[in-house]
């Protein structure tokens, strides 16, 4: 991979928390707990998953650099979601975790010498993975889950269509002249 492609990938990686925040503003909070199916995550659960995933990524990234060729622990997102009680955890705090850890990881990655990008670790399911390969996967992670959130919103809209705007009352109609009274009129 050439430097320009890597630079673009890193910039995309670094912008992902802002992209997530912008996407979340599109979805009404009242639907964040909506699950499109029993085996699918709600937006609330996706946010908590992203925080856990970001914590795992923070450690994995550092392991690529400090302990190349070493094994890394498996991260089972479904198990974490099922046992950690995501429903009762704060999305605000999770979003702050994502923002801070992503920023720290980004700052570390942009300062790396070119030779470090070829270092590998042993992944439990994917075998040998280089830091460059890992970066490609991580760069797509938050956008992938934003797409999942959009799908949740689309299924929610099918059962909760937007209300039609209220009809304009005669009092607020712009066609009626405004009557003003002076203090002497009372």
Provide structural commentary.
- Helices cover 55% and strands 4% of the residues.
- Helix 2 (43-66) runs parallel beside helix 4.
- Strand 1 and strand 2 form a beta hairpin.
- It has a single domain (3-25, 38-161), classed as Four Helix Bundle (Hemerythrin (Met), subunit A) (Up-down Bundle), CATH 1.20.120.450.
- With 186 residues, the chain is mostly helical.
- The protein has a two-stranded antiparallel sheet with strand order 1-2.
- It has five helices and two strands; from the N terminus they run H-H-H-H-E-E-H.
Q: Topology of this structure?
A:
Blueprint: H1 3-24, H2 43-66, H3 77-83, H4 91-110, E1 120-123, E2 127-130, H5 131-159
Antiparallel strand pairs: 1-2
**Largest sheet, if any?**
2 strands, antiparallel
What is the number of helices? 5
| SSE topology string | HHHHEEH
Which value, in Å, is the CA radius of gyration? Answer: 24 Å
Total separate domains: 1
Helix share bin = 40-55%
What is the CATH architecture annotation? Up-down Bundle
Which whole number gives the mean pLDDT? 88
Shape: elongated
Structural class: mainly alpha
Give unreliable regions as ranges: 175-186
Keywords:
single chain, about 190 residues, mainly alpha, Four Helix Bundle (Hemerythrin (Met), subunit A), two-stranded antiparallel ribbon, about 55% helix, about 5% strand, elongated, disordered C terminus
Summarize the structure.
This protein has 186 residues and is mainly alpha-helical. The protein has helices at 3-24, 43-66, 77-83, 91-110, 131-159; strands spanning 120-123, 127-130.
């Amino acid at each position: 991979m050439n430097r320009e492609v890597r630079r673009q990938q890193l910039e995309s990686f670094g912008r992902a928390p802002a992209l997530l925040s912008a996407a979340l503003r599109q979805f009404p909070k009242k639907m964040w707990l909506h699950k499109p199916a029993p085996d699918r995550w709600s937006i609330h659960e996706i946010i908590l998953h992203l925080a856990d995933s970001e914590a795992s990524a923070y450690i994995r990234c550092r392991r690529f650099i400090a302990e190349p060729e070493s094994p890394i622990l498996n991260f089972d997102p479904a198990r974490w979601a099922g046992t950690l009680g995501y429903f009762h955890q704060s999305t605000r705090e999770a979003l702050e975790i994502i923002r801070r850890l992503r920023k720290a990881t980004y700052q570390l990655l942009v300062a790396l010498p070119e030779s470090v990008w070829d270092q590998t670790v042993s992944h439990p399911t994917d075998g040998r993975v280089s830091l460059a390969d890992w970066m490609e996967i991580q760069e797509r992670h938050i956008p992938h889950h934003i797409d999942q959130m959009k799908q949740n919103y689309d299924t929610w809209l099918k059962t909760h269509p937007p209300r039609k705007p209220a009809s304009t009352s005669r009092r607020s109609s712009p066609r009626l002249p405004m009557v003003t009274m002076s203090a002497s009129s009372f």
